[in-house]
Amino acid sequence: MTHPLEELRDGALEEIAAAPNEQALETVRVHYLGRSGSISAWGERMKTLSKEERPVVGKLLNQARTAVSAAIEEAGEKLRAAQESGALTGLDISLPGTPNELGALHPLTQMLDRGIELFRRMGFALAEGPDIEDEWHCFDALNTAPDHPARNEADTFYLPDGRLLRTHTSTVQIRAMQAASPPIRVIAPGSAFRRDEIDATHSARFHQIEGLYVDEGVSVADLKGTLEFFLRELFGPGTAVRFRPHYFPFTEPSFEIDVKSKALKSGEKWIEVCGCGMVHPAVFEEVSRSRGDAAYDPEKWTGFAFGLGMDRLAMILFDIPDIRLFAQNDLRFLRQFA
After folding, report:
1. Which structural domain, as residue segments, surrounds residue 333?
2. Same domain for 333 and 193
3. Alpha-carbon span 11 to 63, nearest angstrom
4. Could you tell me if 134 and 68 lie in one domain?
5. 61 and 143 part of one domain
6. Is the dihedral angle over the CA atoms 249, 251, 253, 254 positive or is it negative?
7. How far apart are CA 186 and CA 125, in angstroms?
8. Domain limit, last residue, from 57, 87, 117
9. Could you report the per-residue pLDDT of 121-135, keeping only the tens digit for each?
10. Is residue 92 part of a domain?
């Protein structure tokens, strides 16, 4: 005489064989092997059976579970294989494939990454600040006179509330000094904004890496050594570097830097690349006033600062004739840097 468990097993196997899809197969599994399934219910009935019946029923229960589980797994694999095979129906494998083009970093991103890497090797930490600033951080703290041309609305983007778009990332240097006592060694990569007439060499938005190093006994020799190393790593070991006296309100003495390298298309022509100088004592005094202490006492601490226009360096290094190419998203231009 056939046991009820055997009848359940045979019924489950028939339903599994007839299941048209994976959803129907899951319904069969729940009906028989789920927590309240027909076969699973026999596990609870074991408690009510006699000692003589338990071994027999236990064996039949395990056999039924194993047979139904195996059948469900096998049927599921067949259904999935059939589905995948159907998806390929009508596919012409003789047609050429679709090319998979790899992208690349934008040339300005490559330039910024390279600059950050070189300064990190020299121990500079990264510092960040907001693009929208106030006049104190952008001008007053940097010893910029009230009548300086840079503070004019013709040169700087002012917002209705009196704030402005920062004209340089030197504002981050001020924020770094406000946040930490010396010694300090940071670089501030980021965007800057000025009301320039847009042409081949000028843009209303450009990118900088500005740096600041403050410690006891920092000298012009440290400044020269740092920037000469950076420029020779960037343009090649044979690069000549020239420092020319200049004026910036936030540094004294101040310098413009020119380079000359046979590796560049300009050859033996001197090219201006950046500005730098020793931090003006007035900047240290203003930062100390804002902090409410004498942390940046100019009698104890000295430092240097520099500003690098990354758009300009990229144009020189990659021989790019027009700064507007960086923002036009022309794939013919961008693919050259892939």
Report:
1. 107-337
2. yes
3. 14
4. no
5. no
6. negative
7. 5
8. 87
9. 999 999 999 999 999
10. no
55 vs 325: which has the higher pLDDT: 325
Token output for 277:
């100088």
pLDDT band at 98 (very low <50, low <70, confident <90, very high): confident
117 and 51 belong to one structural domain? no
Task: Judge whether residue 224 has pLDDT over 90.
Answer: yes
* Three-class secondary structure assignment of the chain: CCCHHHHHHHHHHHHHHHCCCHHHHHHHHHHHHCCCCCCCHHHHHHHHCCCCHHHHHHHHHHHHHHHHHHHHHHHHHHHHHHHHHHHCCCCCCCCCCCCCCCCCCCHHHHHHHHHHHHHHHCCCEECCCCCEECHHHHCHHHCCCCCCHHHCCCCCCECCCCCEECCCCHHHHHHHHHHCCCCEEEEEEEEEECCCCCCCCCCCEEEEEEEEEEECCCCHHHHHHHHHHHHHHHHCCCCEEEEEEEEECCEEEEEEEEEECCCCCCCCCCEEEEEEEEECHHHHHHHHHHHCCCCCCCCCCEEEEEEEEHHHHHHHHHCCCCHHHHHCCCHHHHHHHC
Residue 20 has pLDDT above 70, yes or no: yes
What are 132-146's pLDDT values in tens digits? 999 999 999 999 999
Backbone angles phi, psi at 30, to 5 degrees: -65, -40
Residue 148's CATH number: 3.30.930.10
Verify that 81 and 114 share a domain, yes or no. no
pTM over 0.85: no
Residue 1: the pLDDT is: 58
